[in-house]
Structure formats: structure tokens, C-alpha cells
Specification:
disordered N terminus; alpha+beta; 12 strands; 5-stranded mixed sheet; 3-stranded antiparallel sheet; Cytochrome p450
Length: 486
């Protein structure tokens, strides 16, 4: 046995090796360098990001400024920002629209900000109130109710409701404010078609809280008194309670007279719907879906109607063409005969006016997506979990797509119309807004009734337009009415 001591040099080598190994194991890790392929841009302040800049651009009457400045500074294809506390890639131009719409449920899917989910769906811990599950279950019902084949049956109801509204709210006054009347009209019509409610007091009770909901729907979810989000959550809960009471009453009616009420309105169809396992959708999910539909009818469609009235007042020559088209329809009908589906199809120029209105004053400021896998676009990397945003302001006033873009020119929509993906007011792809045909019929029925009844002039010629969720004239668009001579 060799009892000699090891060579001291061996200890030095051993300790040196152990020391280097420990250094490698416990070496402080540097933060990974920023991905050079991320879209260019800035994310602004912590949590707040650039949300305030985005909101203020709209409040100052120029929501497109936020997008235009960053497209010029960073990229005309895609830039990064931070909105509502989320890292976000803003997709621009027709190519950006096409990419997002054609990759729905492949690379991206629809995303709702926390503020929207907490206002419309206030119980995310409950499995059935999850926005994805609720929307998936209802997705087959809403389009069926709002598709052209179904809407043919509702044109006469829309027309009679519109006539009554015009007679009671417009014809009795020399001067009116368009914004509140447009909201009352679209909301009352939605209540009648979706819920079979036509009692004015009941409709008013439901509508009282909707302004607070829409004001706080897209905002930082700061839920304490004094914030718009707090007011929106509170108002949303009150509306939901009222809708739940309607649902309970309707379920009783359906159980007593099932055959007589099947399929009459959207609420009945939702209550009778069962999935592949024969399971009914919960009352809370249905109430939340109805709440979302009523918000849409209260805000975006009323904003479009308001903007149409605004532009027709500014351009008498265009008003004259719309009047001529609508009077031809009136002359073809008998006394007090209501509009029908064929009449709606004849209103081509009027719909071009509505489209040009949506180009210059989009009722919706954009929509959100979320990346469900890593992907690249225009040479930039978009990581999983990043939010995407598309907005009409990257195309609607782009001179490449629309020459002389500030000019109000309905002829842009005649013939083949704009190039694909340059004008997408209702989105695109598998998640295109199911209410687009409903909105078209509703707006055209309103145009027919108001134009064949009145001429009008604005009382505030250069009234400022404020953009919150939709474009709204700051003073409510007061106008002076002049009935046509019989």
C-alpha cells in the first residue's frame, strides 16, 4: 500500500477546477438582449404604456394621429406599443388586415381586454362565463338570427318602428339633437327584435346605464370609485340583473307555451339552444351575450346614423341624390305600405353614402387579437401571447388606397369598390361581425324615413367630433328640421 501524500499540485488543480465549475453554475445571468426582430416602436410608461396618448388622440378629435405618427416613424407594416397594460403589435395596411383575418384560429384568435371581460363577463372564475366558451356556444345562433334570410322577415318591423320613432321624436320638434335620438332609436329597435320588448318605459329603464358602460368599456381596469371603469362595471351589473329578470320570465313563458314562442326573437332561441350533449347554456352566459349585443346596437350603429345625418347636412348635392333614390322607392309603394327586402336592395347609392361615412368616421376604432403561437410578419417576430390590434385608420385615409382621402365621395363604392382589405368596417375572416347585414338594413331603413320626411341644417357648423369608442359630436349634433312640402 502506498502511504505517500498526494502531490500538492494535484490539490491546486482540483480546487481550481471546482472553483471554475461553481463560477459556471452560479454565474449571474444577464438579461437576454432585446429581440432585434420585434416590431419597432416604444411601449411607454410601465402599466399605462401609451394608452393615454391613444385615448387623448381620440378625445382631441384625431384618433388616426396615434397610428399615422408611428407608421411614419417606425414601420408602415407593423409597430409595437403598449395599450391597456399589454404588449401589442399594431398591424397596418391592407397586408396587415389580410394577414390577421386569414390566420384567425391558426396564428391568432380574438382577444378581449380585461375591462371588456369584467364589464360584460364579471365572473371569469365560473367555467360557463368564460368568454371563449360562451361565444363559441352562441356563435351558431347569432349569425342565424342576423343573416339576410332571417332579416327579410324583420324589415317591416324595422320600418314600422322607425316610422313611429320619427313621428314621436323628430316630427314634433323644429330642432333636435341627433346623438341621443339615434341611441334611443337603435336601442329600442334592438330591444324589440332581440327581446320582444316594446314598452317605452321598460326600454328606457334598460338604456339608462348604457352610456356609462360604453364610456368605460375600453379603459384601464382600475376598479375604484371615480374611474370610468368602476362606473362601467356598476352599470353593467345593473343591466345584467334586469336582463336576468327578463330571462327568468321568458323561461316561464316558454315552458307554458313552448310551441307558440319558439324562434320569435333572439333571446328565445338562445334559451332553447342545447349543445351536442343536450346541455342548455347558463342564464349568466345568455345575459352577458345579450348585454354585448345591446352595447353594439347602442354605440356603433347609432354613431353611424349620427355621422350619416352629419354628412348629408354638409353636402346638399349628395343629400339630393339620396332623396331621389328613396323617393323612387316611395312612389312604387301603396299608401302606408311598409318597406320590404326588395326595397332595401334598391338603396345602392344610400349604402355607398353609408360606406363613405364609415371610411371617414369609423364607428369602431379597431379590434384586438392574441398570438396563439410564434409567427413572423413583414420580417418581424411576434411572440406567443402578444396582443395584436388592427385599426381602420391605417387604410381608410391612406392616399394609396383612396385618392384625395379627405374628400367625401360615395362614388368610391360604386362598381367593384375599394381594393380587398383596404375597407373592412366589419372585420373579416371567420370572425367577421355577424351583425353587418343587420346594421346595413337598420341604417338604410332609417335613411329612407328621415330623408323622405325632412331636410335639415346643422346648428353648429364646425362641431367638434370626439372619439371615445365611437365618433360622437361634442354637442350632440343639434339640427334644425324642415319638413318636405306635400
Amino acid at each position: 500500500m502506498d502511504l505517500s501524500f498526494p502531490n500538492p499540485l494535484h490539490f491546486v488543480v482540483l480546487f481550481a477546477s471546482l472553483f471554475l465549475l461553481l463560477l459556471l453554475i452560479f454565474k449571474p445571468k444577464k438579461s437576454p438582449p432585446a429581440n432585434p426582430k420585434l416590431p419597432p416602436g416604444k411601449t411607454g410608461w410601465p402599466v399605462i404604456g401609451e394608452t393615454l396618448e391613444y385615448v387623448m388622440a381620440g378625445r382631441n378629435g384625431n384618433p388616426g394621429k396615434f397610428v399615422d405618427e408611428r407608421m411614419k416613424k417606425y414601420s408602415h407594416d407593423v409597430f409595437k406599443t403598449s395599450l391597456l397594460g399589454e404588449n401589442m403589435a399594431v398591424f397596418c395596411g391592407a397586408a396587415g388586415n389580410k394577414f390577421l383575418f386569414s390566420n384567425e384560429n391558426k396564428l391568432v384568435t380574438t382577444w378581449y381586454p380585461d375591462s371588456v371581460q369584467k364589464v360584460i363577463l364579471p365572473h371569469p372564475s365560473h367555467a360557463e362565463t368564460d368568454v371563449g366558451l360562451g361565444v363559441t356556444r352562441m356563435r351558431s345562433i347569432v349569425p342565424e338570427f342576423l343573416k339576410p334570410e332571417a332579416l327579410k322577415n324583420y324589415v317591416s318591423i324595422m320600418d314600422s318602428t322607425t316610422r313611429q320613432h320619427i313621428e314621436e321624436k323628430w316630427a314634433q320638434n323644429n330642432e333636435v339633437k341627433v346623438v341621443p335620438l339615434a341611441k334611443k332609436y337603435t336601442f329600442a329597435l334592438a330591444c324589440r327584435l332581440f327581446l320582444s320588448i316594446d314598452d317605452p318605459k321598460h326600454v328606457a329603464k334598460l338604456s339608462n346605464h348604457f352610456a356609462r358602460v360604453t364610456d368605460g368599456l375600453i379603459s384601464l381596469p382600475l376598479n375604484f370609485p371615480g374611474t370610468s371603469f368602476y362606473r362601467a362595471v356598476k352599470a353593467g351589473n345593473m343591466i345584467r340583473e334586469e336582463v336576468l329578470a327578463i330571462i327568468k320570465q321568458r323561461k316561464m313563458e316558454l315552458s307554458e307555451k313552448r310551441d307558440a314562442t319558439v324562434g320569435i326573437d333572439l333571446l328565445s332561441r338562445m334559451l332553447l339552444y342545447t349543445d351536442e350533449n343536450g346541455k342548455f347554456v347558463s342564464e349568466m352566459v345568455i345575459a352577458s351575450m345579450i348585454l354585448g349585443l345591446l352595447i353594439a346596437s347602442f354605440d356603433t350603429t347609432s354613431a353611424l346614423i349620427t355621422s350619416v345625418v352629419n354628412y348629408l347636412a354638409e353636402f346638399p348635392d349628395i343629400y339630393s341624390k339620396v332623396l331621389e333614390e328613396q323617393m323612387e322607392i316611395t312612389k312604387s309603394k301603396g299608401p302606408n305600405e311598409l318597406l320590404n327586402w326588395d326595397d332595401i336592395q334598391k338603396m345602392k347609392y344610400s349604402w355607398s353614402v353609408a360606406n363613405e361615412t364609415m371610411r371617414l368616421a369609423p364607428p369602431a376604432q379597431g379590434f384586438f387579437k392574441v398570438a396563439i403561437s410564434d409567427f413572423t410578419f413583414a420580417g418581424f417576430s411576434i411572440p406567443t401571447g402578444w396582443k395584436e390590434y388592427w385599426t381602420p385608420y391605417s387604410t381608410n385615409k391612406n392616399p394609396t388606397y383612396f385618392p384625395n382621402p379627405e374628400k367625401f365621395d360615395p362614388s368610391r363604392f360604386e362598381g367593384n369598390g375599394p381594393a380587398p382589405y383596404t375597407f373592412v368596417p366589419f372585420g373579416g375572416g371567420p370572425r367577421m361581425c355577424p351583425g353587418r347585414e343587420y346594421a346595413r338594413v337598420e341604417v338604410l331603413v332609417f335613411i329612407h324615413n328621415v330623408v323622405t320626411k325632412f331636410e335639415w341644417e346643422k346648428l353648429i357648423p364646425n362641431e367638434k367630433i370626439v372619439y371615445i369608442t365611437s365618433p360622437i359630436p361634442a354637442n350632440g349634433l343639434p339640427i334644425r328640421l324642415q319638413p318636405h312640402k306635400k
